[in-house]
Amino acid sequence: METCFTQNNNGRRSKMGWGDLGVNGEPSRETPNIDKMATEGILFPDFYSANPLCSPSRAALLTGRLPIRNGFYTTNAHARNAYTPQEIVGGIPDSELLLPELLKKAGYMNKIIGKWHLGHRDQFHPLKHGFDEWFGSPNCHFGPYDNKNRPNIPVYNNSEMVGRYFEEFQIDLKTGESNLTRIYLEEALDFIRRQKASQKKFFLYWAVDAVHAPVYASKPFLGTSKRGRYGDAVRELDFSVGEILKELHNLGIAENTLVFFSSDNGAALISAPTQGGSNGPFLCGKQTTFEGGMREPAVAWWPGSITGGQVSYQLGSLMDLFTTTLSLAGQHPPDDRIIDGIDLSPILLQGKVIDRPIFYYRGNEMMAVRLGMYKAHYWTWTGSWAELKQGINFCPGQNISGVTTHDQREHTLQPLLFHLGRDPGEKYPINVPSAEYQEVMPRIISAVKQHKKEMVAGEPQLNVCDLAVMNWAPPGCKKLGKCLTPPQSKPWKCDWPH
Amino acid sequence: METCFTQNNNGRRSKMGWGDLGVNGEPSRETPNIDKMATEGILFPDFYSANPLCSPSRAALLTGRLPIRNGFYTTNAHARNAYTPQEIVGGIPDSELLLPELLKKAGYMNKIIGKWHLGHRDQFHPLKHGFDEWFGSPNCHFGPYDNKNRPNIPVYNNSEMVGRYFEEFQIDLKTGESNLTRIYLEEALDFIRRQKASQKKFFLYWAVDAVHAPVYASKPFLGTSKRGRYGDAVRELDFSVGEILKELHNLGIAENTLVFFSSDNGAALISAPTQGGSNGPFLCGKQTTFEGGMREPAVAWWPGSITGGQVSYQLGSLMDLFTTTLSLAGQHPPDDRIIDGIDLSPILLQGKVIDRPIFYYRGNEMMAVRLGMYKAHYWTWTGSWAELKQGINFCPGQNISGVTTHDQREHTLQPLLFHLGRDPGEKYPINVPSAEYQEVMPRIISAVKQHKKEMVAGEPQLNVCDLAVMNWAPPGCKKLGKCLTPPQSKPWKCDWPH
Fold first, then answer.
1. Are B278 and A399 in contact (CB < 8 Å)?
2. Partner residue facing A19 (CB), from B25, B311, B422
3. Contact partners, residue B131, CB within 8 Å, separation at least 6
């Protein structure tokens, strides 16, 4: 069984949201290929990321473990979103076992295309953690920088850089033009063809970032969407997914390949409307633990094995892809640590549904939990008043009294309870004295108690920053004459404002 | 060509919204039959009602004309939503030509099942305006009343009442149980079978009201939805649509029958979450001229003539069904008056798109206009501060500064402009000094100027109220011993608060 994860990217400023798929109700309906993928496979309306932010979400995907376990969080302040900008010192610890490392033992060839985001220093690179190939960047495609105070982000081909964004790899911030998605598509098709030719099993993690601000698309797609530049990027992404599926068919390996499409966090409403997507009917967006921050578009496709036209109400998580992939590859997940992802193969292959909770973390705090149709918020916070006053708003146009709080509000003694079936927008907390609240909360409290009892937090990786660790002199820079001189090391405690 | 309009109901308190269809992204995806209808036909994501309220919307559907032309509006106060409660004196004027009157000339048998809502006094009844048969009620299924201060609403079979709600036709407000949708379904199937047997062309207007508060469903559907009682009602409605389509196939007339599914206004968010639906990503709901108030679910189905799997970006209106149906029946719309509906047959049959504006009225005021992807608000108003303080909120949880205004705010000199493609939620007004605003507004201003120049307002029908005109002694009451004594006539100017 081959595997492709097609995943679109994130950072602070943008992200493909649940509501961006035509099949999930985006009014312009500009994702015909992914919509078709859904009609040929399983659509998961209740699928979650493990975190409302990029790096932690990706670390969870590849380890099958919550960020608080695998170290992708901060303890510098309470309940803060942290990720891996250039100045971050940490990255994925060697002690974590990543999906490609485990698949390698089963004879898989593993490639990541696009944004890695699990640490940009040498020891954290994909090829040190089980991937055989890499084409892409370690960090977000922000810039251009001056290469004095801050270097431009390198693009790697395997273990060496082949250029930098805004230098060898252009993104025209004014027009939005960039060929990156096309390059990433060609990389994907080439990799798949090579594995087919050499009859190797493969795992492809196609982690493109066109829908992350600054959003971009190649010339044939620019100006073609009814939704503006963000829509152009979505259209190219959708086109590319279609090309990948078509190639799998052409090569005669579609029936041996599981393809899963999802996203690493909710649409970044702060970048809307020109650079941000849609979370459909859900509350708020990226950075928050409301549904808009973590409910993801999700489609599983595997002709021959998965019956088409299904909708699964399974509560799913990106972390499940770790466990499910191992299971389908005949491997067991490591038994020396807690794995949060569950094996979805009974859902994919037999239409079953497994009861399980979903935990919503922001940094070091469990903010909320979902059990069945109910979601209980133990803490609420959209972002700080100070940031709101500067125009940084993760819930633009939405204001639900006592819910979208601008201070960190604790509800641990009496969680805010919502029924996500009749109230997907988290607008109507269930009355505490009601029979429903009294019946449901004990079950949730019990699940939380069990979860906290078993929680052993990992060493936080996102606490320390240092300008010296930025991408000054990545491997391969000498050959290209692109090495820069790092400043002296002066580590500091990173500041995570929200 | 036969025609069915399946339409779900409204009133002040509830309504099936754009976002309630699975195919439009309702997360619980509980409309498999309508979703299938869409995959076999055309889905219209950009389809509008002619008004954000029930009676005017239905009057527009059946006359092809805006409520301000056909009289279904009030001049008692500026920009007010008015409809036809029991105390209303007015109704559809004889001077208006209704779709069934015109189809009758082409040999059609016409039936309305469900809520009529174009006036409950004798002269306004469906059988006086072209329908051959009627089963249903003239007003909303509110109650129960005491039959002293206010009579219960009668249910008619053709020209005579056969009982009253909460008396012969039960709606259990506590459990939500009622057999009305089942009865309406059986009425529909019976009518269709009879027309087939007698080889008559037919027009069926299936105007059921289960999703209007108080929402109801029959026993087999109660408690079956993930979305609560509102979802139960949607599920029964969806089931019934499936049964109607199935019967058309069984009778061998599916290929001769155009079926159009839509709704008469947006979901009533004021009734959410237990009695109200979803407007997906759109702003506000019923009663407002934001997208959530007037953007409707819309599906056209006609096996053999309409190619399945289409999405049409045509800006459509319920009023178009008037003109389109006449066109397909080989009839011309009346040429002695302005008809707002356009002929959609080139869209249905040839996949064309026709450029046309959409006007958003609230009572006697043109509040907004859409042209292409742009919408300009000339006036904004969600509802009054006074009502908001009483908890009457048509935009719960949504608050967009300068847009969701609680006073009637005039923008006629500088309309608020939105791009509905990249900003379907009407959150980000386009800057007035921008080139985009300066380029777009002249075209909109020109369309509005033309529209206003040609506007001849009809005699307002919704100005006068009188307790004496309520359903005290409807035709047929004597036979049933159900006549009540009306009070003395004391007309007053109806008060429309929002």
1. no
2. B25
3. B100, B110, B111, B112, B205
Judge: B26–A29 Cβ closer than 8 Å, yes or no: no
Asked if residue B494 lies in contact with residue B76, where contact means CB atoms within 8 angstroms, the answer is yes
Are A280 and B228 an interchain contact pair (Cβ–Cβ within 8 Å)?
no
- Give the model confidence (pLDDT) of B481-490 as tens digits: 999 999 999 9
**pLDDT score of B272:** 87
H/E element, A181: helix A180-197
With CB atoms and an 8 Å threshold, state whether B25 touches A28: no
Q: What is the pLDDT of residue B64?
A: 98
The residue among B168 and B12 whose pLDDT is bigger is B168
Partners of residue B373 in chain A, C-beta under 8 Å: 226
User: First vs last Cα of chain A: how many Å apart?
Assistant: 41
Q: Give the phi and the psi of residue B206 in degrees, each rounded to 5.
A: -95, 90
Residue pair B482/B153 in contact by the 8 Å Cβ criterion: no
The reported pLDDT for the residue numbered A3 is: 67
Cα–Cα distance between A317 and A383 in angstroms, integer?
24
Interface touch A422/B22, C-beta < 8 Å:
no
Chain A positions touching B399 (Cβ under 8 A) are: 397-399
B280 → closest Cβ in A25, A311, A397: A25
Q: What's the sign of the alpha-carbon dihedral B318, B322, B326, B327? A: negative
* Complex-level ipTM: 0.93
Work out how many CB contacts closer than 8 A connect A with B.
118
For residue B376, CA distances in Å to A240, A297, A369, B399 come to 35, 32, 41, 18
Separation of alpha carbons A210 and A196, rounded Å = 27
Residue A14: the pLDDT is 47
Going by C-alpha positions, the residue among A151, A380, A423, A182 that lies closest to residue A288 is: A380
Q: Under an 8 A CB cutoff, do A27 and B228 touch?
A: no
Which residues in B lie closer than 8 A to residue A283 (C-beta atoms)? 397
Residues of A labelled as active-site residues = 54, 117
Number of Cβ within a 10 Å radius of residue A493: 12
- Decide: residue A5, CB within 10 A, 0-12 exposed, 13-18 middle, 19+ buried: buried
Give the per-residue pLDDT at A302: 97
Q: Tell me the per-residue pLDDT of B156-183, one tens digit each, with 9 for 90 and over.
A: 999 999 999 999 999 999 999 999 999 9
Q: What is the pLDDT of residue B10?
A: 34
| Helix spans in A252-304 (H) | 291-294
Structure tokens, B62: 């059946």
What gap in Å lies between CA A15 and CA A28, rounded to an integer? 18
Q: Which of residues 61-120 of A touch B (CB under 8 A)?
A: none
Indicate the pTM of the whole model: 0.95
Q: Is B477 in the active site?
A: no
pLDDT by 10-residue block (mean), chain A, 498 residues: 55 71 97 97 98 97 98 98 98 98 96 97 98 98 97 98 98 98 98 97 96 96 97 98 98 97 95 92 98 98 96 98 97 96 97 97 98 98 95 95 97 98 97 98 98 97 98 98 98 98
- Nearest chain B residue (CA) to A403: B397
Q: How far is B428 from chain A, CA to nearest CA, in Å? A: 7
Q: Tokens for B376?
A: 């300009």
Nearest-angstrom CA–CA distance, A397 and B297 = 24
> What's the start-to-end Cα distance of chain B, in Å?
41
Which residue in A370, A326, A369, A371 sits closest to A344, CA to CA? A326
